[in-house]
Amino acid sequence: FGEVYTTALAAPAEQTRVLVYRNNQAPNTLPVNIYLNGQYHASLLRGGFTEFCAAPGAVNIKAALDDASRLHTSKLDAGQRLVLKAGQTVFLKVDESTSPVIGLLSGTAAQTKAEIEGTRRQIHTISRAKAALTCGQPAAVAVVTPPPAPKPPAPREYALETDALFEFGK
To answer: b/e map of 19-28 (b: 16 or more CB within 10 Å)?
Structure first.
């Protein structure tokens, strides 16, 4: 775990700040994996939170309990669709009340204040989700795919006389 949550910073004007947390009284000790658009973002332990910024628009977010035992196949599920607005901060609580299906409940800073205070930042994994941006960082520009490389020339055949000699290693 990293630092203890104190308060959410304001979202950058051109991004949405998203905080996903799991309270200390979660009924299960196994980790909950968070996926954004089918890509791994974080594994939340009890009492942990993760924070990221994203470009405005739609993103699918999925929470999956103990997904490692299922070979991380939950990332293939669509999850919940969020429509993110620039300058907005979104708080999502991992809802384990319907276990084994895990959901995310949305709330405001005031509604989640008591539950999120005292949680600690999850720092043991690295996000692989392209939708998760560093706050204040512009969204990635679409990469232009270069044209395919030209075909190599057809192999040439050589006919050598049997009496041709070459120096060793040449």
So the answer is: bbbbbeebee
